[in-house]
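Review box. Two proteins, two foldings.
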Amino acid sequence: MHSAIRKTGIAAALLSAALLLSACGSAGTASGSAAKASGNATLSQQEIAAIVASPDRSAADRNSDAQRKPALVLAFIGIRPGMVALDLNAAGGYTTELLARAVGPNGRVYGQSPPPRDANSPPQKPVTPEGNSAPPRPASGTPAVRLTSPQALAARTAANPSLANIVPLVRPFENPAPPELAGNGLDLVTLMFNYHDTGNWGTNRAQMNRSVFNALKPGGVYVIADHAGRPGTGISESGTLHRIEEAFLRREVEAAGFHLIDEGFFLRNPNDPRDKNTPEPPQPKDDFILKFVKP
């Protein structure tokens, strides 16, 4: 059954886009525009490429593109204008902005970040580095000013008024959707390369996944990308190697009621031994991306 579900995600997405282009071309420009206005037409490969090539994207985001492969990710999602999306743990807003450009002015993207940690709460469990964990920060020099996620998203909107459809959102992971959308209000939820971190943050992931399930419309999709861990490691290396076992993540998400409908292979690196944070010899991490649907 698993082999029937595991499709070449990007090939299916691009084939769908090609068929869409052909249909729109034969129907004429007017009918194509009407389809786009309805929010039902998946963006074509060419339209996605134009979004990624937008000259007003930041240099920092462009530098991340080689590793993040945004055109393939957006095609894999099946992004379309008019969607209402939630980007979990939006951080600086790399994915949030791409989604906002793709859903257009008739869509909306909520960039979620958790509330600041209560200073009076017990300290988090310390993490013991393993392998070649992230290198320590330099002891000297002037530290860079780091914006909070809401500040970073607001800065993006201020720099580009066309991104006014980004809505910064501060809510806990266990209840991430705004109240008015918490019941069947979302078309899409993304969680990019941070599901593993919830193991180190003490997040109630079962509650988070149930909340995401409840917030999505029937047919809505939950797309998760992360760094692959070795079989049997579960989420135990979340704070050290920043990895998670793919099968473990899938079991947790499916326990909330989701069905896996697609898996993309364009982020995979089978040569990564998956035993260190930064592979040796230096190379990209083995990353996976999964698409789940709410029936």
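Next protein.
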Amino acid sequence: MVAGRQSCAVQSPSSSSSSVAPASASESASTPAHYENFPVASWLCPPALRQPIAAIYGFARTADDIADEGAATPTERLALLCEFRAHLFQAALGRVDAGRWPQVFAPLAQAIERHRLPEALLADLLDAFVQDIEYTRHGRHYRDRAELLDYCRRSANPVGRLLLHLYGVGDAESLARSDAICSALQLINFWQDLSVDLPRRRFYLPTSDLGLHDLDAGSLSQFRPLAAAPPPAAALALVAHEVEWARGLMQRGAPLVHRLPGRAGWELRLVVQGGLRILDKIEALGFDSFSTRPTIGKPDVIRMSWAALWMRRQSPAMTSPHR
């Protein structure tokens, strides 16, 4: 699948792209307030890179809102993402028109020009958002971990690779470790958000993993959050299995913190520890994130900062990410 092409292939007739912008979708482009587990362009980020990092985040956050927020229909969302993709193409050429999202594409075009950001990585993010809409609309599930990781390859990994590009790091080992961290963060978000995603028909638990615990997609309709009953032991064991997978990925990527210089390395330490802290909190719930969504609070920051300070140099083997 070519990034960006699918979204335009499913676009409504041309008139729709100029009329489908419901307030909830178009207004979401203007820096919405979102709960975030991890710092974005924080004070730890090298000052010279705060503008391009903020531009990348604004691009990704706005596209995510188009795909996920408000009351727009799937067809409307896909049409808007196609229009968004067209603006990305223009921004990559150094052109910014007075479209719906000038506050997104003006700084992004500047960042692309100054830092030679790869357009393909930005387009991959849009491709993943399109896939989310299509999978949710048609009730599709991920068959196995490999298929889910392919989604992460486009939904999360491009952000890490864009940051490494800004930091001037491009060796194969660093890219692989970045991919492991970003995929782990995406998986952690999935296992953190089961109580939110399942009622919205967003289903990321791989079918093959369900089968390992004698469950199927229909089984989840019998307990929280889709019913009043508490989740059975098999469902909790399933989440424990997924938490172990995400933790292993994060640990394989963690040595990247020693590859990045100065503030960037410290920023990444906190990102890694934030992800691991969410996993700890899911475990503390008895792996019942079906009923409760764990979040990072102020007391967690102290623990994360201490753990970040003492991250040791070690190089776990980059084994299969599917394990």
